[in-house]
Amino acid sequence: MSFFTVGVFFGFTISIVSPPAASSALSAVALSQIAKPALKPVGFLSKPAVKKLVSTADGFVWGQGKPQFTVFIDPNCVFCHQFYQDAAPLVKSGKLSVRIVPVAILEQSSFVRAAEILSAGHPLTWYLRNEKRFVMPPVEQGGLSLKLPVSTAARSDLSHNNAIIRRLDQNHSATPTFVSPSGVVQVGLPAGEFSGLLIMMRSGGAQ
User: At what angle do helices 78-92 and 194-203 cross, to 10 degrees?
Assistant: First the structure.
């Protein structure tokens, strides 16, 4: 496993992790066999502190109306792609809107793809393109080409987003990470949990 540092924010060193190669080939059918991040509420910060911190993240809205919750996504994250697939029908029907915050925690290419999204004049367009062209395991990577222009401002904003997601989970990070309107932080999205997560996010959570 290798690391490279991309910046420091409020005393936190932001490192992108490049995980070891998968030991066996995985197909889209075998997605359920991948070790899933735990679905758990995180309570290291108060709800008001979480709301204030997350409000400073650089992101964009997917869907119509007021965002119901915020989700931090890595463009190479297969479980973030699962969230996209689960949420897309509700967004298309006008029943859901969500604030997307790109981060880069999985691969070196995650930083480039996330910065490409944030650099775009219409970041939602590039986020959707990344997900629609997502390459499933064993490759597991977003669909953007790594050749789009990336602005200095986007790199800075992305480093800021990376620092926020680490702060939310006591200097750790996992994607997707969800934040309810009331400031409840929920890490992970195991298969079959989207409906329950959606109810909690819409209600503001019970923490």
Answer: 70
Contact 71, 177 (CB under 8 A): yes
Write out pLDDT tens, residues 116-158: 999 999 999 999 999 999 999 888 899 998 988 889 999 999 9
User: What pLDDT does 87 receive?
Assistant: 94
Q: Are 126 and 60 in contact (CB under 8 A)?
A: no
- Separation of alpha carbons 53 and 163, rounded Å: 10
Exposure string over 64-73, b if 16+ CB within 10 A, otherwise e = eeebbbbbbb
**Prediction pTM value:** 0.78
- Please say whether the beta carbons of 169 and 187 come within 8 A: yes
What does the alpha-carbon distance between residue 202 and residue 10 come to, in Å, rounded to a whole number?
31
Q: What is the mean pLDDT of residues 58-62?
A: 97
The whole-angstrom separation of Cα 142 and Cα 205 is 30
Name, in order, each residue with C-beta under 8 angstroms of 156's C-beta and a sequence gap of 6 or more.
7
CA 178 to chain centre: 8
* Mean pLDDT along residues 61-69: 88
> What was the pLDDT predicted at 118?
96
Which of 126, 141, 132 has the alpha carbon at shortest distance from 60? 126
Q: How far apart are CA 134 and CA 162, in angstroms?
A: 22
Q: 96-134 in b/e burial notation, b at 16+ Cβ within 10 A?
A: bbbbbbbbbbbbbbbbbbbbbbbbbeebeebbbbbbeeb
